[in-house]
Amino acid sequence: MIELRNVTLKYGEKVILDKVSLTVQDNTIKAVLGPSGVGKSTIIKLMLGLIKPNSGQVFVDGVDITPLKEADLYPIRRKMGIVFQGNALFDSMTIAQNMSFFLRENLRLPEEEIKQRVTEQIRFAGLEGYEEQLPESLSGGMKKRVAIGRALIFNPKMILFDEPTAGLDPVSSRKILNLIASLKKSNDLGAVFVTHIIDDVFAIADEVSVLYQSKIIFDGPTEQLHNSEHPFIKSILSDKILEL
Known about the structure:
The protein has about 240 residues and is α/β, with parallel strands linked by helices. It has eight helices and ten strands. The protein has helices at about 40-50, 70-75, 95-105, 110-125, 140-150, 170-185, 200-205, 230-240, and strands at about 1-10, 15-25, 30-35, 55-60, 65, 80-85, 160, 190-195, 205-210, 215-220. A six-stranded mixed beta sheet has the order 6-7-8-3-9-10, with helices on both faces. Strands 2-1-4-5 form a four-stranded antiparallel beta sheet, covered by helices on one side. Strand 7 (about 160), helix 6 (about 170-185) and strand 8 (about 190-195) form a beta-alpha-beta unit. The mean pLDDT is about 90. It comes from Chlorobaculum parvum.
């Protein structure tokens, strides 16, 4: 479980997050929805301990990570996989090498176990036959699937996604959303994804937090979003705006 408790974050005089609280339960898909540039990706960085809040606390499985030093954060981060918006693949490495790189560098696992884990994630991502391809030869959706497979290779409890369908065509977007949904069904994992695409939220999210003007204005089951009386939420729903 991941929890942000009364988190405030400022860059200079600019308030990015203002007393934000939200919880991500295990085996739950949680969306963080909001306009571009509102600070959604900052929430992921806080969950990973990459940045620290000005005030408030961030808990991972009951441990307050805000005072932890970098060395102490490593076992915490091992519990989470991250899929960046730009995928962050190594251009000079094949798909299989991209997936296996951190297993060799960080865990130094036996080659047989590395091969087994890579094969499992290649199969899960539907990339059989592309193991020796370079990222430049893949479509945007396929690159995203490689990034998801790489995030899963450490056997995390939770996967964090930064705008997982941004820039993808509708068919590729649907494949990525189905893959995220299958994490919960097949792998018993939780997921957090930040997005500005409201359709994605209704497609797969169990719960949603809406971030607007530095504050969480809704936090609850996705199906209850229609019951919100907040003017911003009512406007995006009544106008049938699919992208914020």
